[in-house]
Write a structure and sequence with these properties.
The complex is a heterodimer of chains A (about 160) and B (about 300). Chain A has about 160 residues and is of the alpha+beta class. Chain A folds into two domains: about 80 residues, Beta-grasp domain (Ubiquitin-like (UB roll)); about 70 residues, [2Fe-2S]-binding domain (DNA polymerase, domain 1, Orthogonal Bundle), CATH 1.10.150.120. Chain A is built from five helices and five strands; from the N terminus they run ββαβββαααα. Chain A has a five-stranded mixed beta sheet, with helices on both faces. The longest helix of chain A has 14 residues. The relative contact order of chain A is 0.16. The mean pLDDT of chain A is about 95. With about 300 residues, chain B is an alpha+beta fold. Chain B has three domains: about 45 residues, Uridine Diphospho-n-acetylenolpyruvylglucosamine Reductase, domain 2 (2-Layer Sandwich), CATH 3.30.43; about 110 residues, Uridine Diphospho-n-acetylenolpyruvylglucosamine Reductase, domain 3, CATH 3.30.465.10; about 110 residues, CO dehydrogenase flavoprotein, C-terminal domain (Enolase-like, domain 1), CATH 3.30.390.50. Chain B is built from ten helices and 14 strands. A five-stranded antiparallel beta sheet of chain B has the order 4-5-10-6-7. In chain B, β2, α2 and β3 form a beta-alpha-beta unit. Classes of the chains: A alpha+beta (about 160), B alpha+beta (about 300). Chains A and B meet through β4 and α4 of A and α2 of B.
Chain lengths: ~160, ~300
């Protein structure tokens, strides 16, 4: 099986990594770069626990090969806070009680951040549609949706 | 690593620089090499053991795969490397191909649509493909590069069975061109799923309609259905009813019944054949009524 050396940016830092062909971006982030905030829920592109930003757009990292990350700018949940200050979507999800077991949370935050970047004033339906690909087994979603709406108001 | 699903099996990732190289490689490793774009069907099938390629060929940097442009004469051309979200965001797609955009927005999730492509949806050839119906009613033509050079295949002639198409080893679908649709057309994509958003279609009805003075009824409809036959299915009989008889509640019911009688769905985890047939009838009726209302 072939190996490939790739150069990419992860949370602002340049990373040079050698990866096997069959490694997903998810595995590279978690096991090579030790960024374990991004989770593996289904390895099928359905649950969204593995969502990261690639060049500003949310992507299921289990549905992308590590070798395809060459030249890309990747942001994981670890990269949302800046200089120790939480992103507004992180603040509001805590305030609104949108976190229980926390497994879906990193993916939710990334999808929420991406939504507010492209639509700073989303309707409730916009929020629901943006989070359709992020499944949660604990909260029943209401508080997560409220937290995204609150984050939009305060941005 | 403990994972909810097996990891990807071993394979070699290959990214040819030119079309000739790519077609030659695929033809030379016919049983062992598979082209991929977003990978959203491919990786899942590989994890489940249905696809076992030794080589995955990334087509996303090949010439002709990154195009996304509208021309007032030739229509909309969408490259194989273009994710669905980008098509849905294109103003000309919204203006001239609203049914396609509606279908795109029903697919999976926003983050999956940043990888999934329309060409991939077509090549995967699932009868359930959400965007396939739109490419049928908009009369799309696939632009393909093979070992013998360029060729074109209409989408209507592309599917041969569940997951099967007319592509030969070495063939790479570079893009699809949707001709400019009739002025004033409108339509609807109704997707029946187990939940309101993001599921695979139990039944998916694509309707396109426009006023046509050459039709006896004054209207012409193009209708396609997902998940009711071995391939994405065009409702020819229903279309004929709606073109030849003046449009009344009875005609619409007759067309819907003709649709129901013509499909051959199977029982599967998402629904029974019997349920699907009734849903074809009901959703065809709804899609046609909705389109007529919008046409005024």
């Amino acid at each position: 099986m072939s190996f490939h050396q790739i150069t990419c940016k992860v949370n602002g830092a340049e990373e040079i990594v050698t990866v096997p062909s069959n490694m997903t971006l998810l595995t590279m982030l978690r096991e090579v770069l030790s960024l374990t905030g991004t989770k593996n829920g289904c390895t099928a592109g359905e649950c969204g626990a593995c969502t990261v930003l690639v060049d500003g757009e949310p992507v299921n990292s289990c549905m992308m090969l590590a070798v395809e990350a060459e030249g890309k700018d990747i942001v994981t949940v670890e990269g949302l806070a800046v200089d120790g200050k939480l992103d507004i979507v992180q603040e509001t999800i805590i305030e609104k009680g949108g976190v229980q077991c926390g497994f879906c949370t990193p993916g939710m935050l990334i999808s929420a951040r991406a939504l507010l970047n492209r639509n700073p004033n989303p309707s409730e339906e916009d929020v629901v549609e943006a989070l359709v690909g992020n499944l949660c087994r604990c909260t029943g979603y209401s508080r997560i949706i409220e937290s995204v709406q609150a984050a939009a108001k305060r941005s | 690593m403990i994972s909810a699903h097996p990891g990807l099996p071993e394979f070699d990732y290959v990214r040819p620089a030119t079309l000739a190289e790519a077609s030659q490689f695929l033809a030379g490793h016919a049983a062992e090499a598979r082209p991929f774009s977003g990978g959203t069907d491919c990786f899942v099938r590989m994890r489940d053991g249905f696809f076992t390629p030794k080589y995955l060929v990334d087509i996303k940097s090949l010439e002709g795969t990154t195009v996304l442009s509208f021309d007032a004469k030739t229509g909309l051309t969408i490259g194989a490397a273009v994710p669905m979200n980008r098509v849905a965001a294109l103003p000309e797609a919204n203006k001239y191909y609203p049914v396609l955009v509606e279908a795109i927005k029903s697919v999976a999730s926003y983050q999956l649509r940043n990888r999934a492509t329309i060409i991939g949806n077509i090549c995967n050839a699932s009868p359930a493909g959400d965007t396939i119906g739109s490419t049928l009613v908009y009369n799309g033509v696939l632009n393909i590069h093979g070992v013998d050079g360029a060729k074109k295949v209409p989408v209507r002639e592309f599917f041969t069975g569940p997951g099967k198409n007319v592509l030969k080893p070495g063939d790479i679908v570079l893009s699809i061109t949707l001709p400019v649709p009739p002025t004033g057309h409108t339509g609807k994509y109704i997707k029946l799923g187990r939940n309101r958003l993001s599921d695979l279609a139990i039944v998916g009805v694509t309707a396109l309609g426009f006023k046509d003075p050459t039709a006896k009824s004054g209207y012409r409809f193009s209708l396609a259905v997902a998940s009711v036959a071995p391939t994405p299915y065009v409702l020819t009989k229903a279309e004929e009813v709606l073109a030849t008889k003046s449009i009344t509640a009875e005609t619409i019911a007759e067309a819907a019944q003709a649709a129901m009688d013509s499909v051959t769905p199977i029982d599967d985890v998402r629904g029974s054949a019997s349920y699907r047939k009734f849903m074809v009838r009901n959703l065809t009726k709804r899609a046609v009524e909705d389109t007529l209302k919008k046409l005024g």
